[in-house]
Structure formats: C-alpha cells, structure tokens
Amino acid sequence: MQAKVASMQADYSAMKQAAVVQAARIEQRQAFLSALVEGKTDAKTLAAMVPGDVPTAPLTPLTAPYAKVAQQQDALAGKALALTEGRYRMTADALRRLGVDARRFQRGNPSLGMGGPYEPVTKANISDDADPQFRALFMSWKKMDQLEREVISVPSARPVFLKQVAFTSSYGVRSDPFRGGAAMHAGIDLAGPIGTPIYATADGVVNRAEWANGYGNLVELNHGKGIQTRYGHLSKMLVSAGQRVKRGDLIAKMGSTGRSTGSHLHYEVRLDGRAVNPVPFLQSTDYLLAVQNRTDTRIAMGGPDAN
Fold this sequence. Notes:
Elements: H1 2-38, H2 43-48, H3 64-97, H4 132-150, E1 166-169, E2 172-175, E3 182-185, E4 188-191, E5 197-199, E6 204-211, E7 217-224, E8 227-232, E9 234-237, E10 244-245, E11 250-254, E12 264-271, E13 274-276, H5 279-283
Antiparallel strand pairs: 1-4, 2-3, 4-12, 5-11, 6-7, 6-10, 7-8, 8-12, 9-11, 12-13
Helix pairs in contact: 1-3, 3-4
C-alpha cells in the first residue's frame, strides 16, 4: 500500500508540474498575441516574447483545460498570420502599381547601403527553440511592419493644394516651350500664383536648396531607399540642406525662376536617380489630377534641359 501511495503521489506531482508548465506556456503565448494584436511594441521587444516550443504533454485532468486553450490560441495565431500576410501583399501591390518593388524596403537588400555597429545574436533575435508557428507569425509580422513603416518614404502627399493650381504639362516627351521640337520632361508642371505654398510629399532630408540652372531655385528631398523628389522654379526656399522635413511640411513658395514661362511648380519623383512619372504617386492618395490636353498656348510650364 505504501508503494502504491508513493507511486500515486509521484504521478500527481508529475501531472501538477506538467500543468504548471502548460499554464506558463499559455500565459506566454497570450502575452505575445496580445502585444502583436495591440501593435504597441517594437520588433525587438516582440521577438523576446516569442513563446518557446514545449512538447505536448499527455492529457490529464489537470492539463486538459490548458490543451483546449492552446488549440484556441493556435487558431488565433493562424488567423493573425493570414491577416499579416494579406496586409503585406496589399501594400506590396500598391507599391507595384507605382513601379516600386517592395524589396526596396527590405533591410539587407544588397543594392542599398548598409552598415551600423556590430550586434551579436542574442535571445532577442528569437531563440532556436521557439514555437515554430509563433516564430512564423513573428517573422511575417516583422516583414509587414517594416514595409508599412518604410513606405512613409514614398511620395504621396500633395505638393500643392489642388484648387490653387492648374495642371499644365505632363511627364514624358513634349514640345519644348523654348526651343520647340520634342524634348523629355522629367516631371509635371502645376501652375498657380507666385507665392503659392509648396509642401513636402514625404518624410525626408533636404539634399539641396539652391539655384540649379534650368530648375531655377530648386529644393531636392532625399526620402531614403533611393527615392527623391524635386521642386523647381521656386520664388522662395524655406528649408536648407541637411534639414529634416516631415510629410506636409511647408518647404517653399511657387515662382517662375530658371527656365520657366510663368509661375508654376515643376515636380519630380526619382527612383535611384531616374525620373519616373509622378502622377501615379499623387493618385495613390486620392490626389486625382485631370490630365488636360496639350495646347499651343504659352501657359506656365518649363523645366531643365534634358542634359
């Protein structure tokens, strides 16, 4: 009898310990899911919260309730993974319509500059014994979160208020307003009164704010990831080189300096130094520009020579 009692006590002790382990795992998984869903934590903190992979214990009266909760958490993690991957695809598709590859915003892209101090791999980088499902969820969330944070560098705000300007020249080949004949126009022209406020279309740093030949007074913003915007023919520049600006900050006033036939803004978007059509970027935030037919009238337009 003493041997049987001792055996029963040992079994109960083992079941109790298994229940304690399962309870701790449930709490850890729940904390991770709550932090991810609430979106109030950074990647490094969330990485440290990824639950470990504990082998499933045999069902006992003490562990059965925890097993049911774990199944519910697995289902929730699966839904979160699907939603995270869906959000990433939607953002990537929106960028693709602009001609921008989402991989441009991935850290470690060999075509972009890299650096930073050395930091050894630690537990904060997710341990090898992490729960595979939750590891996959974290990696998917991190990829999505990084992309959504980085797209702030994509020009999409309005450089001027639509009611204050007229669209006078589109991107692409046109008849040069000074020389005649076909010439490449690297941006779009938006005409308005001298002094019309001009705003940064994305977060960035001022590369230059100076006279630049055909552009006249030019402000050039570097948004990172190889993305730049240019604002030409300004009557006044309100920023200086090296200054940080936010999307929507007032950076200049409209004018007719440089190679210009009248007061307007020459606006460019450049990817890796190459000019691309700015109109899709403006339309990406419901800034719908009605492209007017070209006329022979000498309305306000301009832009630098092709060279």
